[in-house]
């Protein structure tokens, strides 16, 4: 019996010590897995914001086409299209009103939203306005019978196509991954700056100047006045004047700062009214 045991090396052998191996492997893969999961949530929110912006940009161009290409009308149309992005419940008028005000604050705030009129250009406006009866607008009637002569780089038919480009700084709200995405977009520079001044151009490196929105505190009072203009007088509520804006706007409970990256959308609509001002 002893001889058989001696010839069988498997009997009596010490089992391998692999206890704790799964824990070590989990600790190695956990950070990557966490970033993938959180990143999936954040990129889904970015996609939602981009889809909403695409629709809102079209609404803005349509509103501008109906209102002589005026920038205020374009911004108002954009704010209307962006409203669903900030709504949290449905069938609630109070929440809808709040979302509409937040959308207006975001759109009319030049630090978070930029609207560029790509067409018609200022040169095209100045070249074609002399052909109108008033001399102050691009002719908008009988376009199919007008000559296709190019003036200022565009014919009168093409000058009646309103093309706008909207750049909006969307918020990154998922913890941990928001800093990662922000840093990957702008580069791992000035992290102490970007985490405290909301895209302040005065504090970013020279090579990044103009790529971020300015400090929200530069326009705080104009934002307060804007919010108050949207609140009906009968409610008896208004925002007080503030020397510097807090992390969130009172009453609205909306964070105007945080980590943000720009997303862009374009839209083209045929003018339904004459362009009365140079872009």
Describe the structure.
The chain has 279 residues and is of the alpha+beta class. Helices cover 42% and strands 12% of the residues. The chain has helices at residues 2-7, 21-66, 71-86, 93-108, 122-128, 177-186, 191-194, 220-230, and strands at 113-119, 161-171, 248-249, 254-255, 260-270. The protein has a 3-stranded antiparallel beta sheet. The protein has a two-stranded antiparallel sheet with strand order 3-4. The longest helix has 46 residues, at 21-66. Mean pLDDT is 78; it is low at 189-218.
Task: Assign the structural class, choosing from mainly alpha, mainly beta, alpha/beta, alpha+beta, or little secondary structure.
Answer: alpha+beta
Order of strands, widest sheet: 1-2-5
> How is the biggest beta sheet arranged?
3 strands, antiparallel
Give the SSE order as H and E letters.
HHHHEHEHHHEEE
Radius of gyration computed on alpha carbons: 28 Å
Strand content: 5-15%
Q: What average pLDDT do the residues reach?
A: 78
Helix content: 40-55%
